[in-house]
Amino acid sequence: MLEQLSQDIEKAFAEADELIAAAGNVDELRQAESRLTGKQGTLGALLAAIGKLPQEDRGPAGKEINLAKKEIIDRFATARARLERAADRQAAAGAPAFDPTLPGNVVPRGSVHPVTAVQWEVEEILARLGFIVATGPEMETDYYNFEALNIPALHPARDMQDTFWLTNGRLLRTHTSPCQVRAMERLGPPLRVIAPGRCFRYETEDASHANTFFQLEGLMIDRNISIANLIAVMKLILNEIFRRDVKVRLRPGFFPFVEPGFELDMSCEICGGAGCPTCKRSGWIEILPCGMVHPNVLRFGGIDPREYTGFAFGLGLTRLAMMKYGVQDIRGLNSGDLRAIIRPEQRTGPAIIAKD
Ligand code: PHE
């Protein structure tokens, strides 16, 4: 008799598998399940038949049928989970297609500061002309910042550069020109050197003045260097940076370490020459003080002025960055305001950084 039962149970398993395979959705599956495990179902009929078995077979038969029932319920549960997952996938397929090759959201990772970008650019242009980069300390001595640049103690020219004096007798360099004499001492003539760096002045801040700013010093010394060489190099730098033939003008300018000295102005990039607060409504912006190296400075650097001449310039990197990227207020560049330091290639128009 129990053999018969085993066969019936096998049949019930086969029926369950068949119904599971045929069920197209969760509802059909539920109906199929009750056809097997329900009171009126296949297993229900087997249980009901137990009463007809001999007394000693009833216990084992009941046990076996219940085990089979458990197994079949498990199979249905697995099938239901599979159908539910398929339904989810189908619902998702109705949604807009997901393209795994699309680029993700871009997380900004920081970028180069406009002053650094301009500095690198100028370095690159001048490197092509054989200039090398030299540096000097931000905390300077009176000797290199003034004395060796032909600005002796008590000279009125010291007032041109309001200085942060330090308690150790040194100072925060007011310009990158101290690198001139340092380079002459270190390298000797002939030389082509640029010295980019941070400078400090005891200034009241406004749209075009900051107490901390960047310059790039240039120095070329050789036999027969003339003003023509100076002008050629200055024009080349500005034309390359602004990628056009910039308008410039030269005015006489006084700096004790050059003779003759010039102020090189270029037409204001921000207002196009019409006049704005940055150019103090003049349409011109002072960008490049320069001149022929004073013989005294050559001597301080250990170079014989009867044999060598040279020119020097002090490019205002901060001001140049403002011009190039259309930054209206110099304070924006030192503020950490990310709108001021957007990556040049990301820019769609001039980023106007004005502070109230
Ligand atoms: N060092 C000068 C300044 O900052 C600029 C300058 C450099 C002028 C080189 C002439 C030659 O004011």
What would you say about this model in short?
The strands form 2 sheets. A 7-stranded mixed beta sheet has the order 1-4-5-9-8-7-6, sandwiched between helices.
Structure description:
The protein has helices at 2-22, 26-37, 42-49, 55-94, 114-127, 142-145, 178-187, 227-242, 295-300, 317-325, 330-333; strands at 132-133, 139-140, 171-172, 191-200, 212-222, 248-252, 258-267, 284-293, 309-316. With 356 residues, it is α+β, with helices and mostly antiparallel strands. The strands form two sheets. It has a seven-stranded mixed β-sheet with strand order 1-4-5-9-8-7-6, with helices on both faces. It has a two-stranded antiparallel ribbon with strand order 2-3. A hairpin with a 5-residue loop joins strand 6 and strand 7. Phenylalanine binds at residues 175, 177, 215, 255, 258, 261, 289-291, 312-314.
Rg, Å, rounded: 43 Å
What is the annotated CATH architecture of the largest domain?
Answer: 2-Layer Sandwich
Structural class: alpha+beta
Quaternary: single chain
**Poorly predicted runs of 5 or more residues:** 343-356
Count of the domains: 2
Q: How many strands?
A: 9
Order of helices and strands: HHHHHEEHEHEEHEEEHEHH
Q: What's the average pLDDT?
A: 86
CATH class of the largest domain: Alpha Beta
Q: Tell me the span between the first and last alpha carbons.
A: 99 Å
Spell out the CATH superfamily of the largest domain: Bira Bifunctional Protein, Domain 2
Biggest sheet: strands side by side, in what order?
1-4-5-9-8-7-6
